Amino acid sequence: MHALTAIHPIAAPSKFLVTCSSCNLRELCLPAGLCPEDLERIENVVYARRRVKRGESVFKAGGEFSAVYAIRSGFFKTSLLDREGREQVTGFFMGGELLGMDGIGGSYHGTAIALEDSEVCILPYALIEEMSRDIPALQRQLHAVLAREIVRDHGVMMLLGSMRAEERLATFLLNLSRRFVRRGYSSSDFHLRMTREEIGSYLGLKLETVSRLFSAFQKDGLIDVQQKHVQIRDIEGLERLLAIKH
Amino acid sequence: MHALTAIHPIAAPSKFLVTCSSCNLRELCLPAGLCPEDLERIENVVYARRRVKRGESVFKAGGEFSAVYAIRSGFFKTSLLDREGREQVTGFFMGGELLGMDGIGGSYHGTAIALEDSEVCILPYALIEEMSRDIPALQRQLHAVLAREIVRDHGVMMLLGSMRAEERLATFLLNLSRRFVRRGYSSSDFHLRMTREEIGSYLGLKLETVSRLFSAFQKDGLIDVQQKHVQIRDIEGLERLLAIKH
DNA sequence: CGCAGGGTTGAGCGCTCTCAATATAAGTGG
DNA sequence: CCACTTATATTGAGAGCGCTCAACCCTGCG
Q: Which of A136, A208, B11, B91 has the smallest C-beta neighbourhood within 10 Å, fewest atoms?
């Protein structure tokens, strides 16, 4: 088990799994109709929160798996290191999303690092496992979440395997936009938490290429960029980029 | 539910989940020590086999999810189609491996197509779900299998995102070799079931590039290729390719 | 104010793609 | 079994996208 840098016991019972409020957890929302006892048990899955400062890791590749983390606030990247030390960013995650599923059944396969001061809810896996035996709805959701992660990864494989640089960045921006909306933020005006190098790693491009593409998109009136501040000016234009047969 | 082209009721109870014999299923092997009743229940998960001829699909993207499939014999590819009809191959699967996990909780996300006449075991998901509630060891294995799929996808993301063409093909060959060994085949002499185009799609390369790389590897004494027949001559040479700093 | 990390932009190169021709294998029907 | 068709592979020549190397700029911070 990792050392917890700051544990905040939950004062009031959390109903996030049902109401998605405490942890802003959108991945694990359960359908209504659970009996009171089940609800109470589910509420206790979140036994602690943990603050993670910018640059710190929630878990590290190779570390023993013990829990899944629900992002309460903040922004994270997950990444792998190969033998030569090259980093591959495998994803960016924001409030309401889950981290650490790749570790189930052994040790974490990647590393999760906060890109800004953040807070996560710790969901001990042993608890989830045990409870999902008793509560079919929770079991369903857990499996669905794992499957969704697989589907997400397939999307990235498609992006990396068959798109040109332009299309990759457009897809990236549209995806971020969609997720920010669901979090209640603006869909067209946001602050990138990651560097050009991290975007490049995620998209299979070099940081200079990413930078050049941002500039090109701006010149074409698709977006406005100023360092990490991005405004989408023409969503349909970005979507049209993806429709052009290569 | 998909129409089953040919159902073969299992005469003798199958113990594949424990012995890995009937379905050659290596993904779901369970630890010893289960009680007899549990064993019997697990045996009944495989209620049918299905023959899949070359070119046929086991399931199609968008089809309603009903079961996971264990490959008993044969060879498959899974792939996605984007809006413009571009195919992205997301994986190749052989005997003892599982197909269809991306559909859990909804509908299949990709399509699985047999690259040679094959046979799969049908594992109805409702049954697995129900049983894994009663048998913790099965639940563990199920989750581990899902997590392993995520880890596998991350490996592909790393390949697509940060390797050059040479390294991708070398990785691909070494991976195939390793998996053939586990299936009892030669590690150094095998028949590729997929086309250059399918390899290319999987590796994010064009078919001509794949073909050229095969020729180059042959010229360098790393392999012998003749159409779909490949012999690995110098495994360490291939591994060395991956160790070279980019 | 100076320093460090991150971002932008330019010039030139090279890996991979595109287009095209040819070769080989695998079917298919007579 | 052989001529025909079709799918798959190989190889070449040339182009272009994204990379490399390098200089410069911006911003935050001690």
A: B11
